[in-house]
């Protein structure tokens, strides 16, 4: 937190405590001109108003609350001061800039038993749940997918970490986020391949070919590519597709001569009419013109291998009912 916000929050916090004290002192002062305990001269329905002080138990509770507030600010850095407070407590490590720094600092705090709320919460969770995940990890992904309890745990982890891209129903969305509920896999759909994808991440690169083939060449390749899934989109489609077949030899290096793709490279199957970025003529044309760059982040640090194992079991279960 910058010095400006430290001062700003500090002034508001201490100002509130001082303001409460001044307000209480003002309320305790006798400004009526009538001695305490005497009648104020007001009567309504037989009820006479008397000039009484605020109850001592009520005012003492206010004083205790204000003293508690000051002591709390001294013990804890609750208003953003640069010091950690007398107890050395902090909510989390605010100085880290990368995930690697955060993980290293977290491990250091847990080992040193520092009074860091985040580190303490992680340590408690590790002590409670790590043995459960370690036990799950002993079962192969394909078998674990039949364990309903493990699948539900994997589903919760999926919703927390994967649903932002693949959707809460895991059906993905156009723009580079695959559907995980079908049997169309870019890198393979076995338990170990899914786990490998989650641990290492993926970087799919499709180069742009506009400069190499020109607009006419791209049009021909698009026609041939669409014909692989049994579609014709132009009047002179057959002629364009025939010309595009010769040019397709360049694409075959990744997608194969028959267009069925290559899971070793993550090259998609072009014959099944499943399109990651859209299968319309304009969408395929855009892909060939400018290329695509899809990134799947690695979760080895974020989740750890045992939790990834459970998520892989959940994902595997979606397409293997």
From TrEMBL:
Chief location of this protein within or outside the cell: membrane
Subcellular location: Cell inner membrane
Keyword tRNA-binding: no
Keywords: Cell inner membrane, Cell membrane, Electron transport, Heme, Hydrogen ion transport, Ion transport, Iron, Membrane, Metal-binding, Oxidoreductase, Repeat, Respiratory chain, Transmembrane, Transmembrane helix, Transport
Residue ranges of coiled coil: none
Biological or metabolic pathway of the protein: Energy metabolism; oxidative phosphorylation
Leader sequence segment: none
Top-rank lineage group of the source organism: Bacteria
Cofactor(s) the protein requires to work: heme c
KW Protein transport (keyword) present: no
Entry's transmembrane regions: 7-24, 61-83
Domain Cytochrome c: 149-229, 239-319
Cofactor: binding details: Binds 2 heme C groups per subunit.
Any matching Pfam family: Cytochrome_CBB3
Function: C-type cytochrome. Part of the cbb3-type cytochrome c oxidase complex.
Oligomeric and partner information: Component of the cbb3-type cytochrome c oxidase.
Entry-linked NCBIfam families: ccoP
Entry's family note: Belongs to the CcoP / FixP family.
Protein name: Cbb3-type cytochrome c oxidase subunit
Source organism (scientific name): Glaciecola petra
Taxon lineage: Bacteria, Pseudomonadati, Pseudomonadota, Gammaproteobacteria, Alteromonadales
Gene it is expressed from: ccoP
């Amino acid at each position: 937190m910058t010095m400006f916000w430290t001062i700003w929050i500090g002034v508001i916090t201490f100002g509130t405590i001082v303001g409460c004290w001044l307000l209480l002192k003002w309320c305790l002062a006798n400004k009526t001109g009538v001695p305490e305990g005497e009648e104020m001269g007001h009567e309504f329905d037989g009820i006479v108003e008397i000039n009484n002080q605020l109850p001592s138990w009520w005012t003492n509770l206010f004083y205790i609350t204000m003293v508690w507030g000051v002591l709390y600010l001294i013990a804890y850095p609750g208003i953003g001061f640069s010091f950690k407070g007398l107890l050395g407590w902090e909510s989390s490590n605010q100085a880290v800039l990368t995930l690697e720094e955060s993980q290293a600092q977290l491990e250091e705090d847990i080992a040193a038993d520092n009074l860091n709320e985040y580190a303490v919460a992680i340590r408690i969770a590790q002590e409670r749940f790590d043995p459960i995940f370690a036990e799950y990890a002993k079962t192969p992904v394909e078998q674990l997918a039949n364990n309903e309890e493990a699948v539900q745990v994997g589903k919760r982890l999926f919703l927390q970490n994967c649903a932002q891209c693949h959707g809460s129903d895991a059906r993905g969305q156009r723009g580079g986020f695959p559907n995980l509920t079908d049997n169309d896999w870019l890198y393979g759909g076995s338990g170990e391949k899914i786990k490998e994808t989650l641990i290492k991440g993926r970087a799919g690169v499709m180069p742009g070919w506009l400069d190499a083939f020109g607009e006419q060449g791209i049009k021909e390749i698009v026609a041939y590519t669409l014909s692989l899934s049994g579609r014709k989109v132009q009047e002179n489609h057959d002629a364009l597709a025939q010309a595009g077949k010769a040019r397709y030899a360049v694409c075959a290096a990744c997608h194969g001569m028959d267009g069925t793709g290559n899971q070793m490279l993550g090259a998609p199957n072009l014959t099944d009419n499943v399109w990651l970025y859209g299968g319309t003529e304009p969408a395929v044309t855009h892909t060939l013109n400018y290329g695509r760059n899809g990134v799947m982040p690695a979760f080895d640090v974020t989740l750890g291998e045992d939790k990834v194992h459970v998520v892989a079991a959940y994902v595997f279960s979606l397409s293997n009912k």
